[in-house]
Amino acid sequence: MRRLFGIILVIAGVVGLYHVWSGGDISLHRIGALLSREVNIEKAVDAGAVEHIRIHTDSANVRIVKGESEQAYVRLQGSAGRHYADNIDLHVEQQGDTLELGLEMPEKFWFFFNFANVTLDVTLPEKQWNTVDVETGSGNITIDGLETDSLAFDAGSGNVKLIDGQAEIKGKVGSGNILVETRELLHDADLKTGSGNVTVKLAERPESLHVDYRGGSGQGRIQWDGFVYEQESDERDVVKGSFGSGEVQLYVRTGSGNFTLK
């Protein structure tokens, strides 16, 4: 308790001195800048034998893009509290044909210095992956141009954006939105949110797509012509039907949030 009290006094002293030095500007942004430092760590991995990608972070944004090299590049960038920045590192481990990526974080640190705003950037070789699995506790997920047989994601709190890729998708978000933006859906998709919207944005009208949507307090909207309804409730919290023969399955569930196919 005495140690904690001492740290609080030190922090109060630092803030007081900074108040005098800055002419009274003690905004949270400026204090955060004073107590933080830049994080920039990068590692490269030979991904020639890799078929599966697994990414797990407790508190970081994740961004995956395709590159032109045969190597996978993993980079952690952003800013963090000084203690955090001094002890954070990348976790990169290859086990057989599986590449596991994540962060190695300090286990114990004082609450005031426990803040970080970092992004895990992953650049993968352009090829057909077998599986890609991404899990975050708190943070956004962005995946651009990835082609894989199976894509799974699980975000506790954060938005998920999937752009111009092809995969069978299964993912859920506790609190946050899901956006799928591509030319057409060629594979099944299973999308769930506890609190947040689900938007599927296609460049071309679906030719053979079955839609099954149910929402707790949200509504479903189909903004393409040619959709044949099998079921639609008055509140639009249930929407079921097909374009064409409905070979590709789009399954969507929202607790509190809307679904839009456009």
Overall description:
The strands form two sheets. The chain has an eleven-stranded mixed β-sheet with strand order 5-6-2-8-10-12-14-20-16-19-18, with no helix packed on it. The protein has a ten-stranded mixed β-sheet with strand order 1-4-7-3-9-11-13-15-21-17. It has 262 residues and is mostly beta strands. It has a single domain, classed as Pectate Lyase C-like (3 Solenoid). The chain contains three helices and 21 strands.
List keywords for this structure.
11-stranded mixed sheet, Pectate Lyase C-like, 10-stranded mixed sheet, 57% strand, globular, mainly beta, 262 residues
Q: What is the CATH first-level class name?
A: Mainly Beta
Whole-number total of structural domains: 1
Number of strands: 21
Instruction: State the distance separating the first and last CA atoms.
Output: 57 Å
Percent range of helical residues: 10-25%
Q: Nearest-angstrom radius of gyration?
A: 22 Å
Taking strands numbered 1, 2, ... along the chain, how are they ordered across the largest sheet?
5-6-2-8-10-12-14-20-16-19-18
